[in-house]
Every structure is written in C-alpha cells, then in structure tokens.
Amino acid sequence: MGQNHNGNLSSPEYIKTSLASAVALRFKSGRFYRDAKPFCINLLLNYTDSCYANCAYCGLARSRPQNNGDKSFIRVDWPVLKTTDVIERIERYQSNIRRVCISMVTHKNAVEDTYSITKKMACYRSLPISILITPNLMNKEDLIRLRQIGADTIGIGMDAASRRVFESTRGKKVNGGLEWKKYWDILQDAVDVFGRDKISCHIMVGIGETDYELCKIFFKLRKYGALIHLFSFYPEPDSSMSTRKRPSLKRFRRIQLIRYLIENDIIKEKHLSCNEKGKISKLSIYNDIINNVVESGRPFITGGCEGKNGDMGCNRPFGSYRPGESFRDFPFHPETEDIVRIKKESRLEEI
Fold first, then answer.
1. How many domains in the chain?
2. Has residue 7 been placed in a domain?
C-alpha cells in the first residue's frame, strides 16, 4: 500500500503515533507536566479514506469535515511516520518503554495491515504488544492468528455502556455501521483465545449513559473476565457531539471508585442502589473500606494494559484533560496532596 498516488501515506508502510509517543521516541520535542512518563507507544493505522465508522464522538468519524491528514484523534495530533522508523526508535529507546499498542480503524485493509505491523514489531523487540481491535471486522480465527504472531493482550473499544447508548452514538441512529452484539461475541472469543484478564474493554463516561448502565456493564464485564479501562468524554471539535459537556469531575471520580470496587470483587450488585434517574444513591459497605481504597489512590490511576513486569504499562498522559486542569486519571501514582484534592473534588463520602 504505502504512499499512494495523491501523496497520502497509508499503513502498513506508514503509521500514526500519538503526540506523547512521538515525544517519547524523540520524533517531536516536548515536556510532560509533573514529569509524567508515557510508558506505552500508541500507534494508529492510517488511511487516505480514514475510518468507515461514524461514531458521534470520534475525530476520525467519516462524516467529520477535513481531510484525513488534518483530523485529530482524542484532540491531539497523531504524526504519520514510516513504520520501520518507528520500530527502529522503539528498539533504541526500549529501556524507557513498557508496552506497544497498535490500534485498528474500521477499514477494509485494517486486519491484514495489523497482522503485518504486529509481526514486524514482534520480530524486532521484546516488549509486550496490545492490539485495540475493530470487532466488526474480526472473527475468532483472526484473534488466534494475532496471538500466534506476537500479541499478548486485546483491547475492545466498546465505549458505550449499553445497547441504547451504542445505537445512538455508534450504531443505526448515526449510520455508524457497528453492531452491539458483534462486540460482545468478539469479546467472548477474545477471552477464549487470550484468557481472563488479558482482554480490556474501554468504557466512556459522559456520552449519554446512566450510572446504573455503567454499573451493570461493569459487573457483566467482570463476569466475562475482561478488565475495564475508563475514559472521560472530552468533546472533539467538529464531531457530532462537539457541543456536549464533559461529565462532572465529581461523577467521574465516583465511577472510577465503583469500577475499582467491582473489578476487584470488593462489592457485589446487592451493595449498590440507584435512584429512579439511574444515579448511584447508596453504596452499602463499610466506610473504612471506601476510605482505604481511596487513600490507596489506585482507582484514579489511568486504566491500561500492564507492562512487561506487571507494572504500569499504558498510562496515556493527558488523554482526558489538559495540563493545568485537575487530573481525571493519573498517569502515575497519586501523591498525598492528590488524594486530598480527590476527596474535595468528589465528596466520595456522600455516596
């Protein structure tokens, strides 16, 4: 594929890197607030005709104006680089890197190009590889092949917490072309192929779901054996949801806490109550348990795949906020003063 007739650069010969990854690999210059370190190199397939899906909140949606080369994704630039150059830099700086993540888009060539890039990555370096897949393009045999050529973890960008929200943001109501059932079928296949706790499911807070829907899908994912990686909605310019407000920090903190308690089997469904509007109204566990969990800081760290040695791997610095704002999720372990601020921002004791 490579460079096509109109000068655009396509995968697998070329690939996008997040701006943070480009800085980590010394393709771009820059510094990170509070000396945060991007431990994972995030890569994204690139095509002239972009992504065929039409998710209402996404900067890569096919209905969003601008040429593909001008489209941002999660509000930052993704420089297009030669894949072999990226691999060479990963090899050079791998002592500072804990994981590589390759993200697919909905495109007819994405599956084969992901195989090609994953195989090259696995041959040249010993870092673990995650693949953020596009379930509507995949089957179980594809997942088996990805594992065989070097991937150790699969990510699934479910994003929506319920079928209702999925249809209104990614499915029929926005002519998105994606199917809720297919996502769950592939999630189960991925757990079968890679094992429990080797599958991560991205869930976004703030795109129209209720707290009840979030809690329900958290318990369901835990039952399936998938980990939950939370994202806070942030409006993408020119997307269909560009004027939608972000979820309040208070709400996001509470959902982070609930996610942690569910994923670590600290609470069951009987411990949670929601009111008629679907908002969490009561958490029936001892305050000492909540206080200890909050004091640990762990619920508020960026959810991401582990590094090679089980340490923090994918931490996506500033994926949900900007320097100067309160951290929505921390790309490092929160310090004592951070915990004090978290308590003030969220009033977790009121649950």
1. 1
2. no
What whole-number percentage of the chain has pLDDT above 70?
93
* 40 belongs to a structural domain: yes
Please state the separation of Cα 55 from the chain's center in Å.
15
Mean pLDDT over each residue of the chain, to the nearest integer:
91
Question: In the predicted model, is pLDDT for residue 160 greater than 50?
Answer: yes
In a domain, 71, yes or no: yes
pLDDT at 4 over 60: no
In a domain, 2, yes or no: no
Q: What per-residue string of b and e applies to 120-132 under the rule 16 or more CB within 10 Å gives b?
A: bbbeebebbbbbb
Gap between the Cα atoms of 252 and 263, Å rounded: 16
| Of 43-52, 241-250, 278-287, 341-350, the least confident | 341-350
CATH of residue 275's domain is 3.20.20.70
Cβ neighbours for 315, distance < 8 A, ≥ 6 positions apart: 36, 37, 38, 39, 40, 301, 302, 304, 331, 332
Residue 188 has φ and ψ, to the nearest 5°, of -65, -40
Instruction: At 14, list the tokens.
Output: 């070329």
> What are residue 114's phi and psi, to 5 degrees?
-65, -40
Cβ partners under 8 Å of residue 235, min gap 6: 57, 241, 242, 243, 244, 245, 246
Which of 20, 259, 57 is CA-nearest to residue 169?
57
The tokens describing 259, both together, are 């996610």
Beta bridge partners of 102: 43, 131
| pLDDT average, residue stretch 171-188 | 97
Tokens of 340: 């004090």
Lowest mean pLDDT among 19-28, 117-126, 153-162: 117-126
Alpha carbon distances (Å) from 29 to 22, 26, 44, 81, 131: 8, 6, 20, 15, 27
The percentage of residues in the chain with a pLDDT greater than 90, rounded to a whole number, is 79
pLDDT digits (tens, 9 = 90+) for 298-324: 999 999 999 988 899 999 887 777 777
> 256 lies in which domain range?
14-350
